[in-house]
Amino acid sequence: MSEAPLLDVRDLSVTFRAGGDAVAAVKGISFSLARGRTLAIVGESGSGKSVTALSILRLLPPAAHVSGTALFKGEDLLKCSERRLRAIRGAAVTMVFQEPMTSLNPLHTIERQIGEILELHGARKGPALRQRVVELLTEVGIPDPAQRLSAYPHQLSGGQRQRVMIAMGLANRPDLFIADEPTTALDVTVQAQILTLLKDLQKRHDMAMLFITHDLNIVRKLADDVAVMQRGEIVEAGSVAQIFRSPQHPYTQALLAAEPKGVPPQSDPSAPVVLEAQDVRVHFPIRRGLLRRTIGAVKAVDGISLSLRQGETIGVVGESGSGKTTLGLAVLRLIRSQGPIVYLGQRIDGLKFRAMRPLRRDMQIVFQDPYGSLSPRLSIADIVAEGLIAQGTRLSLDERRETVARALADTGLDPAAMDRYPHEFSGGQRQRVAIARAMVLEPKFVVLDEPTSALDMSVQAQIVDLLRHLQEKRQLAYLFISHDLRVVKALANEIIVMRHGKVVEQGAATEIFANPQSDYTKALFAAAFAIEADRSGVVAQ
Amino acid sequence: MAAASSRAEVKAGLRLAPPLPKSGMIRLTPLNQRRLANFRHNKRGYWSFWIFIILFVISLFAEFIANDRPLIASYKGELLFPIFRDYPESKFGGFLARTDYRDPFVADEIKAHGWIIWPPIHYSYRTIERSLPTPAPSPPTWMLTKAQCEAAAARVLPPGQPNRGCADIEWNWLGTDDQGRDVAARLIYGFRISILFGLALASISSVVGVAAGAVQGYFGGWTDLIMQRLIEIWSSVPQLYLLIILSSIITPSFFVLLGTLLLFSWVSLVHVVRAEFLRARNFEYVTAARALGLSNARIMVKHVLPNAMVATLTFLPFVLNGSISTLTALDFLGFGLPSGSASLGELLLEGESNLQAPWLGLTGFFVIAIMLSLLIFIGEAVRDAFDPRKTIA
């Protein structure tokens, strides 16, 4: 590169002071970014990538101590005055955050939010301002922008909100655009649309883009250069083509190899059917008016049938709001539903709470969020032992501890740590605890509700391997709910593609992955595997 | 079955589980240890706690500190425990059914044939001092002039003895009230009854309130709706008028007052606990517990209640203080404990009607203010100790 880079970061270190200790979040990293290029910073959670992005615009809390230089067009952003920095923020350097639900003010209209940033940095007023807002909304692909001006954030979908955030970022024609995991909270199809949009905009405006992500697929699709971060340090940097072809650092190699792989174990068509559900419906009534009359229903799950054999996995895929989780809760009878559910030949859909209790030992669930699904006030041993106690297993304290230790060892945890508390474990370890809690009761049927979504990529692969191993060993039947098609591909024998509570496509996994029939499934697969945005309009924005 | 196999393995000596941590007298989980450390770290609350505990324990033994009967007496070679037993006066040569040990005749008789050990203060809360140096309410003895002391001493001393003034009369450290009763003695008894009443009212109403809030929040729906409406109607009953009416029909004793106030005070915690339960019942670990087959009662106690504990503990010192000041207020208005019982409210009332005797009002004010402040400081420290942001880092 002949010209000086647009952004040149040298020896950036960030230390957080908590109580008496100093925790180094970023340890002397350097990188540079030229106009028109995209640099992706990848790493797992806690590697310091978001802190790096925030420190460039000095958006970190006062407890953070930042040192080093961040030269933007020759000017050190880390040392310039607060006044000068405010002029740069939102104009020459802009940022988009991860969570579209909370990064827009819920009390302001779209026009006001975008208009504010224009007013702050330019002197546009009145009709010219409105004209510019409409232009920006058109540019980020919001349909009918003139009508949308008076909309509030809650009236927009997650993807549209993120588009509005991008419009705000673009408003003053920035030179550097920082995107901090802008698509992590979005569905795959929407993610593909947003990424395509960002790529187009970057080309058109010749911006530099600093893209923070944990997803290597996105990096491959979007970035020119990549920097891999681990524990606050950049362990490897270079062009995307080079790093993906021949990664040098063992961490990069591990990261690239970490994608969930493998094929599900063959299902046996003669195995007994563990769970059969026919035409399951979960409707939430909508009540209006003084007398709370039911005027309609939200059909969360609308007529799903499935039949699950021992040792088999059914994958349920779909975007958020498609009713996947509701279906999982319904077949476990954790929420009310209509339609027969048969467990090992016994109708369970009419059973009362009390009558279900002895059956709970055979039907377990593992949740998405390992931080929310473990009570923070109980030790790991207590959490895992809880089911044993509830199911009235007659065990002495020693025997129970031994059973718990065995379950923990089976899920790859060290039984010596069983008296510790959940907050002392990492996300992946917590998820293993949640799996151990389900497995200690020796269930026959387990609902896995997005068990890998909250985890880092390398941990995802381990959890998938663990689940497959347990299934083979114990002939478990899984109902695997996920929006992540790569994980589903590695586990499921059969697939149900859901949308708006209905089945879009259902059948053997190999067939559907090889040859999807419906347009929606095709769009979903394109978005998930190739990050191709669908332009036919089958998927929502 | 895993259970069966692990049982066999325990017998065979194959063990994976680490041995249970050695337990001392009380086994504290690490979480509770951290809470205890947090509590100790809050110096103001920690010291308030010890000061309060010492005061409370002392006041629990009020009979041994301020009483009009001796602790132990020896009379003609016989050991007597007047504090526990009533001895007829005939034993000492008198004629009454109960002995008044403060009577100089009885005291001299016992001293002549043995000895007496008195509590530090020779007055009970209802003892009326008849030989006051000034008309009641009389000021604290240390505020008396020498002439007043000598005049008072002359009345109690047998004729012919040298008059040493204040050293010869029984001291009223904080003066007496308008009926000639020792304020210090009444204070100790009054403090005890206030604290006991407050603790009883606060703890029973918390248990009832938490239980009601828990049921409402956990089950929601119709249960919640109906109970909320009932509580709204119930809490709009004017309790002061009810108490006034009640006290005109029956004499309100300690337990009648407790019961009556309890009818209304349990409502105060319901809303907080209900809100916490409404929030927490949708937590994933609660759903997980349901999926494990736990009973509703067990889920509520083990998984949801700890979430509501912080909110409850935040409110508890205020509920406790509220209970104490309610009792004081009722006593002040004359609708509380029967007249003659030791109570801080009655002390305030006497102070109000005897403005010329400031020791009454000031004593009452300082004791109530210090007691309520100590409890608030302790409450603050307990709340901080249970703050999840501090304990679960």
What does it look like?
The complex is a heterodimer of chains A (541) and B (393). With 541 residues, chain A is α/β, with parallel strands linked by helices. In chain A, 35% of the residues lie in helices and 26% in strands. Chain A is built from 19 helices and 20 strands. In chain A, the strands form 4 sheets. Chain A has a 6-stranded mixed sheet, sandwiched between helices. Chain A is globular and about 70 Å long. The mean pLDDT of chain A is 85. Chain B contains 16 helices and 3 strands. The model of chain B has no long low-confidence stretch (mean pLDDT 84). A 3-stranded antiparallel sheet of chain B has the order 2-1-3, with helices on one face. Chain B is an all-alpha fold and 393 residues long. Chains A and B meet through strand 16, helix 13 and helix 14 of A and helix 1, helix 12 and helix 13 of B.
Task: Detail the topology: elements first, then pairings.
The complex is a heterodimer of chains A (541) and B (393).
Chain A: E1 7-18, E2 21-33, E3 38-42, H1 49-56, E4 64-72, E5 75-76, H2 82-88, E6 93-96, H3 110-121, H4 126-139, H5 145-148, H6 158-170, E7 176-180, H7 188-205, E8 208-213, H8 216-222, E9 225-230, E10 233-239, H9 240-245, H10 250-257, E11 273-288, E12 293-309, E13 313-317, H11 324-331, E14 341-343, E15 346-347, H12 353-356, E16 363-366, H13 380-390, H14 397-410, H15 427-439, E17 445-449, H16 457-474, E18 477-482, H17 485-491, E19 494-499, E20 502-508, H18 509-514, H19 519-530
Parallel strand pairs in A: 3-8, 3-9, 6-7, 7-8, 13-18, 13-19, 16-17, 17-18
Antiparallel strand pairs in A: 1-2, 1-4, 4-5, 9-10, 11-12, 11-14, 14-15, 19-20
Helix pairs in contact in A: 3-4, 3-6, 4-6, 6-7, 7-19, 13-14, 13-15, 14-15
Chain B: H1 2-12, H2 30-41, H3 43-60, H4 62-65, E1 72-75, E2 78-80, H5 104-112, E3 114-117, H6 146-156, H7 183-219, H8 221-235, H9 239-249, H10 254-265, H11 267-280, H12 284-291, H13 296-333, H14 344-353, H15 358-386, H16 388-391
Antiparallel strand pairs in B: 1-2, 1-3
Helix pairs in contact in B: 2-15, 3-7, 3-15, 7-8, 7-10, 7-11, 7-13, 11-13, 12-13, 13-14, 13-15, 14-15
